[in-house]
Automatic annotation (TrEMBL):
Domain Alkylated DNA repair protein AlkB homologue 8 N-terminal: 54-89
Record organism: Ridgeia piscesae
Top-rank lineage group of the source organism: Eukaryota
A single GO molecular function term of this UniProt record: methyltransferase activity
InterPro entries per record: AlkB_hom8_N
Pfam families: ALKBH8_N
Name of the protein in question: Alkylated DNA repair protein AlkB homologue 8 N-terminal domain-containing protein
Amino acid sequence: MKIYSEKSKEIIISFAQDGNFRSTIPNIKIDGRDIAQVCHAKLLGVTISQDLTWNKHVDNIVKKAGKRLYMLYQLKRAGITQKDLVSAYVSVVRPVLQYACPVWHTNLPQYLSDSIEVIKRALKCIFPGLGYAEILRRVNLDTLNVRRDSICQHIKYNVRQQNVYPLPVTRTNRFRNSCIPWALYNCQ
């Protein structure tokens, strides 16, 4: 396998409060070229930060979903029915907010989960004058948080039940709530 130095990035995982640790770590070189050190990188659509928080990822998906809301406004102006607008929301906006959620949702603080729910304005665009809970009840949808929880629960059925995997020793909640330990603790 050939590694391309111009496409490669180095991300140093650290929980240090100051950024001075970077100067003590030598740069990685491939074919005589330094690999760029970055604070966050996108890997298969998921933004990973050097401190393993999901703030940057949540900002990215909310921004991306917000751009897709424009389509809903245009469809509404064109006179599309509410049923079709809900279908457009479910098929175009909501997947952006759920993509790869088994990786990041189980370790998401409440304030970030709440910032994802800001996209409720999409449904308020479709049903003006109604509250978010009433809209969800009317169209038979769950909140985004409940939906992500149910997607994460499907991991249980994808892990082979006949194999018993050793549970990792977890010293911190951050690690225990990350994707693989969470699945192992909740699936066996």
